[in-house]
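Review form for a predicted model. The reviewer records the input and the model, then writes brief findings.
Reviewer: anonymous (R2)
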Amino acid sequence: MIKFFRNIRKSLLSEGKTSKYFKYAIGEIILVVIGILIALQINNWNEKRKQTEIGYQYLTEMRYELQDDVALLNRYINVLKKNIENHKAALKTKNINTLPLDSLYMLVTPENLDFKVSELTYNKMTNLGITKLSNNDQLNTMINNYYNQRVVAQKLSLAYLFEELKKYTDYFKYQQDYFDRYPVEKYPSLVNETKEEHDSLNRLGLIKFATSPKGRKLIINDLGSKQYALTGLEYFQGASVALLNAVYNELKQQDPTIDPLPELPQEFNFKAIELPEDVLKQYVGRYESTKENYVLIEFEKGKLILSYYNEDGGNMPSNEIVPYETDRFYIEKYFQKVYFNRDNGNIKSLAFNQNGERVYKKIN
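Model under review:
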């Protein structure tokens, strides 16, 4: 082909057709430019196709990692809720001497939250220098915020709880002499009593431990750690469910035939509802824990806006709260649930989670 065009140029020059030669040369240059542009466009298409394929592959891997995390979190949360419920019930017992041995053991046993967040796919992306997995900028931002902020915060929280657990279990194993949890039948040569005698002595020791000043502090602090852990795990599960839904919706746009998501925890799979303005205005007011620690609920342009203030300056920016049930709202940005409590039909307080640890009384 190159030889063919060269012969045309020689022929035009030899015949003295200079003007035709220049016109031909310009035309040839235009053809070359068009060819280059087409080649570049084809190359761009190929690169975009490769990026789309890689993005789909990584989003698929991320989807299944998130599914596993959500399921595992659900198990941890359910176990923790039951443990907290039993822990509170045991503490409210008027006479601890009436508690059976297994309840006493439960009362003094901390919960090991050995949960590891799945980051394999995101780490692979980071190592390969991939900063986005789709053309959906909102999803890309959501992915980066999840792994760079929420996952980091969750790991720090669990690391703190693990250190507290180590201190507690170290005291149980090596420092206290109130009770011995090792079974008699496993080490009979080291114990001089029968199983029944061993259990009876342990029961007396557990009661003595639980009623001692240090024992009381450890048991109450452990309950606080469990409640702190539950709030953190629920918050993180909310973020995981939201990202999982976003990733799945992106995948489904590219392939409508993909297999459906498993059933997700409904308490985090929020579906917004509409409430009449007169109902929404019932929630408006100031809610206080103390004079310096309070929440304002305001009605603006058909929406409820929550603002949080505290004496330490850790104020939360104003955010819309969205209803998903009557008296049940959520802050989408923070996956935070807000519960309003009534008495004789009137709003009396709000709480930031279902366990009710952070309750704010309505002032006006």
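Findings: The longest strand covers residues 316-325.
Further findings: The longest helix spans residues 18-92.
Recommendation: see findings above.
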